[in-house]
Design goal:
about 260 residues, alpha/beta, Rossmann fold, 7-stranded mixed beta sheet, 9 helices, about 35% helix, globular
Amino acid sequence: MPASTPRALSFDGAAALYAAARPGYPPALLDTVEELTGRPLSGARAVDVGAGTGIATRLLHARGARVTAVEPGPGMAGELRRSLPSVPVVRGDGNRLPLATASADLITYAQSWHWTDPALALPEALRVLRPGGALALWWNVSDHSVPWIAGQDSRLRRHLGAGDSAHGTPGGAGSRNLPTLSGGGFGQRLLPWSRTVPVDTHLANLSSHSAFLVLGTAGEESTRRFLDEERGHLAAVFPDGMVEERYVVELAVLVR
Protein backbone atom coordinates (compact mmCIF):
# COMPACT_ATOMS: atom_id res chain seq x y z
CA MET A 1 0.00 0.00 0.00
CA PRO A 2 1.44 3.41 -0.91
CA ALA A 3 2.40 5.66 1.98
CA SER A 4 -0.28 8.20 2.93
CA THR A 5 0.30 11.50 4.69
CA PRO A 6 -0.35 11.68 8.44
CA ARG A 7 -3.07 14.25 7.77
CA ALA A 8 -4.83 11.99 5.28
CA LEU A 9 -4.81 9.18 7.85
CA SER A 10 -5.83 11.44 10.75
CA PHE A 11 -9.46 10.42 10.25
CA ASP A 12 -8.69 6.82 11.12
CA GLY A 13 -8.86 7.34 14.87
CA ALA A 14 -12.15 9.24 14.60
CA ALA A 15 -14.05 6.90 12.29
CA ALA A 16 -17.18 6.63 14.47
CA LEU A 17 -17.35 10.43 14.90
CA TYR A 18 -16.89 10.89 11.15
CA ALA A 19 -19.68 8.43 10.34
CA ALA A 20 -22.09 10.03 12.81
CA ALA A 21 -21.51 13.72 12.06
CA ARG A 22 -20.40 14.21 8.47
CA PRO A 23 -23.01 15.32 5.91
CA GLY A 24 -24.11 13.10 3.06
CA TYR A 25 -24.96 14.27 -0.44
CA PRO A 26 -28.20 15.33 -2.15
CA PRO A 27 -30.00 13.01 -4.61
CA ALA A 28 -29.29 15.57 -7.34
CA LEU A 29 -25.58 14.66 -7.13
CA LEU A 30 -25.97 11.12 -8.43
CA ASP A 31 -28.58 12.28 -10.94
CA THR A 32 -25.97 14.68 -12.30
CA VAL A 33 -23.27 12.00 -12.32
CA GLU A 34 -25.56 9.92 -14.52
CA GLU A 35 -26.21 12.93 -16.75
CA LEU A 36 -22.52 13.74 -17.22
CA THR A 37 -21.41 10.13 -17.68
CA GLY A 38 -24.28 9.30 -20.02
CA ARG A 39 -25.10 6.01 -18.32
CA PRO A 40 -27.19 4.79 -15.36
CA LEU A 41 -25.57 3.84 -12.08
CA SER A 42 -27.68 0.72 -11.76
CA GLY A 43 -25.57 -2.26 -12.72
CA ALA A 44 -22.40 -0.18 -13.19
CA ARG A 45 -19.14 -1.52 -11.77
CA ALA A 46 -18.13 1.35 -9.50
CA VAL A 47 -15.05 1.97 -7.36
CA ASP A 48 -15.24 4.49 -4.51
CA VAL A 49 -11.68 5.57 -3.68
CA GLY A 50 -10.88 7.04 -0.29
CA ALA A 51 -14.27 5.71 0.73
CA GLY A 52 -13.86 6.47 4.42
CA THR A 53 -16.84 5.21 6.38
CA GLY A 54 -18.86 4.71 3.20
CA ILE A 55 -20.98 7.86 2.97
CA ALA A 56 -20.79 7.93 -0.83
CA THR A 57 -20.40 4.16 -1.14
CA ARG A 58 -23.79 3.71 0.50
CA LEU A 59 -25.50 6.04 -1.96
CA LEU A 60 -23.92 4.33 -4.97
CA HIS A 61 -24.92 0.92 -3.60
CA ALA A 62 -28.50 2.12 -3.07
CA ARG A 63 -28.63 3.22 -6.72
CA GLY A 64 -27.83 -0.32 -7.81
CA ALA A 65 -24.15 0.13 -8.61
CA ARG A 66 -21.86 -2.83 -7.92
CA VAL A 67 -19.43 -0.98 -5.68
CA THR A 68 -15.96 -1.81 -4.43
CA ALA A 69 -14.62 0.54 -1.76
CA VAL A 70 -10.91 1.44 -1.60
CA GLU A 71 -9.72 2.89 1.73
CA PRO A 72 -6.19 3.22 3.23
CA GLY A 73 -7.17 3.54 6.92
CA PRO A 74 -8.01 0.39 8.93
CA GLY A 75 -10.31 2.29 11.29
CA MET A 76 -12.34 3.87 8.49
CA ALA A 77 -12.41 0.60 6.53
CA GLY A 78 -13.64 -1.24 9.64
CA GLU A 79 -16.47 1.26 10.14
CA LEU A 80 -17.44 0.84 6.48
CA ARG A 81 -17.47 -2.96 6.74
CA ARG A 82 -19.72 -2.82 9.79
CA SER A 83 -22.29 -0.57 8.11
CA LEU A 84 -22.10 -2.11 4.61
CA PRO A 85 -21.16 -5.77 5.10
CA SER A 86 -22.18 -6.72 1.54
CA VAL A 87 -19.79 -4.22 -0.11
CA PRO A 88 -16.20 -5.38 -0.83
CA VAL A 89 -13.54 -3.21 0.83
CA VAL A 90 -9.89 -3.28 -0.23
CA ARG A 91 -6.98 -1.46 1.42
CA GLY A 92 -5.15 1.00 -0.80
CA ASP A 93 -5.25 4.52 -2.18
CA GLY A 94 -5.63 6.32 -5.47
CA ASN A 95 -1.92 6.62 -6.25
CA ARG A 96 -1.74 2.86 -6.84
CA LEU A 97 -5.15 1.23 -7.13
CA PRO A 98 -5.21 -2.47 -6.13
CA LEU A 99 -7.56 -3.25 -9.03
CA ALA A 100 -7.40 -4.92 -12.43
CA THR A 101 -6.97 -2.94 -15.63
CA ALA A 102 -10.20 -2.03 -17.46
CA SER A 103 -12.36 -3.37 -14.62
CA ALA A 104 -14.55 -0.35 -13.70
CA ASP A 105 -17.28 1.68 -15.34
CA LEU A 106 -17.06 4.47 -12.76
CA ILE A 107 -14.43 5.61 -10.26
CA THR A 108 -15.52 8.12 -7.62
CA TYR A 109 -13.58 10.30 -5.21
CA ALA A 110 -15.91 11.81 -2.60
CA GLN A 111 -13.93 14.38 -0.61
CA SER A 112 -10.72 12.48 -1.31
CA TRP A 113 -9.03 13.47 -4.59
CA HIS A 114 -7.01 16.18 -2.81
CA TRP A 115 -5.27 13.47 -0.77
CA THR A 116 -3.74 11.98 -3.96
CA ASP A 117 -0.87 12.94 -6.21
CA PRO A 118 -2.84 13.72 -9.42
CA ALA A 119 0.18 12.87 -11.57
CA LEU A 120 -0.12 9.31 -10.23
CA ALA A 121 -3.85 9.07 -9.54
CA LEU A 122 -5.12 10.12 -12.97
CA PRO A 123 -3.12 7.50 -14.94
CA GLU A 124 -4.21 4.90 -12.40
CA ALA A 125 -7.87 5.84 -12.82
CA LEU A 126 -7.56 5.70 -16.61
CA ARG A 127 -5.89 2.29 -16.34
CA VAL A 128 -8.70 0.85 -14.23
CA LEU A 129 -11.53 2.43 -16.22
CA ARG A 130 -13.04 0.63 -19.17
CA PRO A 131 -13.36 2.56 -22.46
CA GLY A 132 -16.30 4.90 -22.00
CA GLY A 133 -15.94 4.73 -18.22
CA ALA A 134 -15.87 7.86 -16.08
CA LEU A 135 -13.96 9.45 -13.22
CA ALA A 136 -16.16 11.54 -10.87
CA LEU A 137 -14.71 13.83 -8.19
CA TRP A 138 -16.76 15.85 -5.72
CA TRP A 139 -16.52 17.93 -2.57
CA ASN A 140 -19.02 19.32 -0.07
CA VAL A 141 -18.03 22.97 0.46
CA SER A 142 -19.84 25.18 2.98
CA ASP A 143 -21.81 27.97 1.27
CA HIS A 144 -19.79 31.06 2.13
CA SER A 145 -22.51 33.36 0.75
CA VAL A 146 -24.45 32.66 3.99
CA PRO A 147 -23.41 35.30 6.58
CA TRP A 148 -23.18 33.02 9.62
CA ILE A 149 -21.09 30.49 7.65
CA ALA A 150 -18.72 33.23 6.45
CA GLY A 151 -18.33 34.41 10.05
CA GLN A 152 -17.63 30.91 11.31
CA ASP A 153 -15.12 30.38 8.52
CA SER A 154 -13.19 33.49 9.60
CA ARG A 155 -13.08 32.25 13.20
CA LEU A 156 -11.93 28.79 12.06
CA ARG A 157 -9.09 30.26 10.03
CA ARG A 158 -7.97 32.47 12.90
CA HIS A 159 -8.02 29.51 15.29
CA LEU A 160 -6.37 26.95 13.02
CA GLY A 161 -3.90 29.28 11.34
CA ALA A 162 -2.21 28.96 7.95
CA GLY A 163 -5.45 29.77 6.17
CA ASP A 164 -6.94 26.44 7.23
CA SER A 165 -10.62 25.75 7.77
CA ALA A 166 -13.09 22.90 8.23
CA HIS A 167 -15.38 24.39 5.58
CA GLY A 168 -13.45 23.82 2.39
CA THR A 169 -12.55 26.56 -0.08
CA PRO A 170 -15.26 27.66 -2.52
CA GLY A 171 -14.67 28.43 -6.15
CA GLY A 172 -15.87 25.49 -8.22
CA ALA A 173 -14.19 22.17 -8.93
CA GLY A 174 -11.87 23.92 -11.39
CA SER A 175 -10.03 25.38 -8.42
CA ARG A 176 -8.88 21.90 -7.37
CA ASN A 177 -5.98 21.82 -9.84
CA LEU A 178 -7.71 19.10 -11.82
CA PRO A 179 -5.61 17.42 -14.49
CA THR A 180 -6.62 17.75 -18.13
CA LEU A 181 -6.30 15.45 -21.10
CA SER A 182 -5.59 16.27 -24.72
CA GLY A 183 -8.91 16.29 -26.51
CA GLY A 184 -10.99 16.31 -23.35
CA GLY A 185 -11.59 17.75 -19.92
CA PHE A 186 -13.85 17.63 -16.91
CA GLY A 187 -17.54 18.47 -17.08
CA GLN A 188 -18.36 20.47 -13.95
CA ARG A 189 -21.44 21.32 -11.91
CA LEU A 190 -22.18 23.22 -8.67
CA LEU A 191 -25.07 21.74 -6.68
CA PRO A 192 -26.43 23.71 -3.68
CA TRP A 193 -28.18 21.84 -0.87
CA SER A 194 -28.68 21.95 2.89
CA ARG A 195 -29.33 19.84 5.96
CA THR A 196 -30.65 20.78 9.41
CA VAL A 197 -28.99 19.13 12.40
CA PRO A 198 -28.71 19.64 16.18
CA VAL A 199 -25.94 22.01 17.24
CA ASP A 200 -24.02 19.09 18.79
CA THR A 201 -23.93 17.32 15.41
CA HIS A 202 -22.74 20.50 13.71
CA LEU A 203 -19.90 20.95 16.20
CA ALA A 204 -18.98 17.27 15.93
CA ASN A 205 -18.85 17.69 12.16
CA LEU A 206 -16.36 20.54 12.56
CA SER A 207 -14.21 18.53 14.97
CA SER A 208 -14.09 15.56 12.57
CA HIS A 209 -12.05 17.54 10.00
CA SER A 210 -8.35 16.87 9.63
CA ALA A 211 -7.41 20.43 10.63
CA PHE A 212 -8.62 19.59 14.15
CA LEU A 213 -7.70 15.89 14.20
CA VAL A 214 -4.02 16.50 13.46
CA LEU A 215 -3.79 18.59 16.64
CA GLY A 216 -4.10 15.35 18.63
CA THR A 217 -4.18 15.28 22.41
CA ALA A 218 -2.02 18.40 22.58
CA GLY A 219 -4.82 20.38 20.96
CA GLU A 220 -7.76 18.92 22.88
CA GLU A 221 -8.08 21.85 25.29
CA SER A 222 -7.89 24.54 22.60
CA THR A 223 -10.37 22.61 20.44
CA ARG A 224 -12.78 22.31 23.37
CA ARG A 225 -12.56 26.05 24.06
CA PHE A 226 -13.11 26.90 20.40
CA LEU A 227 -16.17 24.64 20.13
CA ASP A 228 -17.63 26.03 23.36
CA GLU A 229 -17.26 29.57 22.02
CA GLU A 230 -18.73 28.49 18.69
CA ARG A 231 -21.76 27.07 20.50
CA GLY A 232 -22.43 30.58 21.81
CA HIS A 233 -22.18 32.12 18.33
CA LEU A 234 -24.58 29.51 16.96
CA ALA A 235 -27.09 30.04 19.77
CA ALA A 236 -27.50 33.65 18.65
CA VAL A 237 -28.37 32.53 15.10
CA PHE A 238 -30.24 29.31 15.88
CA PRO A 239 -31.96 29.75 19.28
CA ASP A 240 -33.88 26.49 18.83
CA GLY A 241 -30.61 24.56 18.74
CA MET A 242 -31.09 23.30 15.16
CA VAL A 243 -28.44 24.44 12.68
CA GLU A 244 -29.16 24.75 8.97
CA GLU A 245 -25.90 23.82 7.28
CA ARG A 246 -25.77 24.99 3.68
CA TYR A 247 -23.40 23.47 1.15
CA VAL A 248 -22.43 23.55 -2.49
CA VAL A 249 -21.31 20.21 -3.94
CA GLU A 250 -18.50 20.84 -6.44
CA LEU A 251 -18.60 18.03 -9.00
CA ALA A 252 -16.22 17.23 -11.85
CA VAL A 253 -16.65 14.27 -14.23
CA LEU A 254 -14.21 13.02 -16.87
CA VAL A 255 -15.37 10.39 -19.38
CA ARG A 256 -12.56 8.18 -20.69
